[in-house]
Design a protein that fits this description.
Layout lengths: L7 H20 L11 H22 L11 H17 L8 H19 L3 H29 L4 E3 L4 E6 L2 E8 L7 E2 L6 H25 L2 H21 L2 H17 L4 H23 L2 H8 L4 H11 L13 H9 L10 H31 L5 H19 L8 H13 L13
Antiparallel strand pairs: 1-2, 2-3, 3-4
Helix pairs in contact: 1-2, 1-5, 1-15, 2-4, 3-4, 3-13, 4-15, 5-6, 5-7, 6-7, 6-8, 6-14, 8-9, 8-14, 11-12, 11-13, 13-14, 13-15
């Protein structure tokens, strides 16, 4: 009911925006593809984004752009740097030219549309996004749980299948048969699954806490079941990053929703005591503790990325070149990239690109922290989602490529440049 609107063009526009964010996830092939995708994929996905932009343009007619704060200059600098960098480095052999064009094309189209949103469409867009993240996470977790009972395997392609009459359900897995298998559901990687489950789980946890405060039993049961299923999905993914970030952000959610300062401190103290006990227990097993601290070998990838960035430290190697950089450091058998968005930015766009990206991220966090109120669910959810992306970027290369994560971050960035109150917005039709 909170999203009910009699403005049909606006409703259509919000639906197309949702498709824009989700299309990358739901059109990926069921194979281990991360940042490494064939050129023909970049071409046809660009056509899909062009169709969505055309639909959004015809429906919303983005001819009016609300006044922005001075911070828009920072965002403009970042986008211009990205554009000129891609053009200058376009013909370098290490650069993935089709990916660079896709990146620029989709970024500018999305920015043009999102810049036209006034306050109320922005609020409804974020409300719709929260609902999508919640129910998408629930669906992905249910699917992973059901298919995990399957007994049919294709070892080379790492496909697990469950036959239900004439219907065959399949998902990717990581691990050896006969042991625990990490599930990827309908995503291309168990870590990607966890990345989408965390925000949905946070929305469910927030709803559970609000149901307790309002003494709404029906809502408590509904969102409690959703939360349990999503957490089971997180366990099936066996993603350390996903589990760590969910637990940390669940704690933060609890603290943000508590109006009394003294009670906040008490809850925080209990969580810290529990964390200390857990860390102390794990430290007794030195091999397991070392593995957890290194996040399953990511520290080696990060060191390789930092080392590879030194020869072109200031301006980088160009978009899409991180794959080759990793191969040069660790050999051709290493998959994907450096498993860290900042390190990929440093390698591909150089120190200046990383500096502009970091400043843009800081702008989002500062704006959402300033907007926080314990009785404003939307403000809390935006703050949580921004911190979710902050944690996610350090262990996954998710904000350097056109994807759902990147476009969510970009919409946050444009929203953060809005002026807080503008009388002109009332004239927007």
């Amino acid at each position: 009911m909170m999203l009910k609107s009699y403005n049909i063009p606006e409703s259509i526009g919000l639906f197309l925006l949702a498709l824009w964010v989700l299309i990358d996830l739901w059109t990926r092939p069921l194979s281990f593809t991360d940042e490494v995708l064939p050129s023909h994929w970049n071409i046809w996905i660009a056509l899909i984004y062009l169709i969505l932009f055309t639909g959004l343009y015809l429906v919303t007619r983005p001819l009016y752009f609300p006044p922005r704060a001075l911070t828009q200059r920072l965002v403009t600098s970042f986008l211009l740097y990205l554009t000129f960098h891609a053009i200058i480095f376009f013909f370098r052999p290490a650069v993935d030219s089709s990916l660079a064009l896709l990146h620029l094309f989709t970024t500018w189209l999305f920015v043009i549309i999102v810049l036209s949103l006034t306050l109320q469409p922005f609020i409804r867009w974020f409300q719709l996004l929260n609902l999508i993240l919640l129910y998408q996470a629930f669906f992905l977790a249910v699917y992973a749980l059901i298919v995990s009972f399957g007994k049919q395997y294709v070892p080379i392609e790492n496909i697990q299948s469950l036959q239900l009459g004439p219907v065959s359900l399949s998902q990717l897995y990581v691990g050896e048969q006969g042991s625990f298998l990490r599930s990827a559901s309908l995503t291309n990687n168990p870590n990607t699954l966890a990345a989408w489950l965390v925000p949905g789980g946070l929305m469910a946890w927030m709803s559970v806490l609000q149901s307790i405060a309002r003494r709404n039993l029906r809502s408590f049961v509904l969102f409690g079941i959703i939360l349990i299923v999503i957490f089971i999905g997180l366990i099936l993914s066996a993603s350390q990053t996903g589990l760590y970030s969910f637990c940390l952000l669940a704690l933060l959610t609890t603290i943000l929703l508590i109006p009394a300062h003294r009670l906040r401190y008490q809850v925080t103290g209990l969580y810290l005591i529990g964390a200390a006990i857990l860390i102390g227990s794990l430290s007794l097993n030195h091999s397991l503790f070392a593995k957890l601290i290194s996040l399953n070998g990511r520290s080696e990838l990060w060191q390789a990325g930092l080392t590879a960035s030194l020869d072109r430290f200031w301006f980088g190697h160009g978009l899409g070149s991180a794959v080759i950089g990793l191969e040069q450091q660790l050999g051709p058998s290493t998959l994907y990239t450096f498993h860290s968005t900042p390190i990929v930015y440093l390698y591909e766009l150089g120190f200046f690109g990383l500096l502009l990206y970091s400043a843009s991220f800081l702008l989002i966090l500062v704006r959402f922290i300033q907007d926080y109120r314990y009785d404003d669910s939307l403000a809390i959810s935006l703050l949580l989602l921004s911190i979710w992306l902050l944690l996610l970027q350090f262990t996954e290369s998710v904000l350097i490529r056109p994807s759902g994560f990147y476009f969510i971050w970009l919409s946050f960035l444009i929203y953060a440049t809005r002026r807080r109150t503008t009388s002109q917005e009332s004239t927007h039709t």
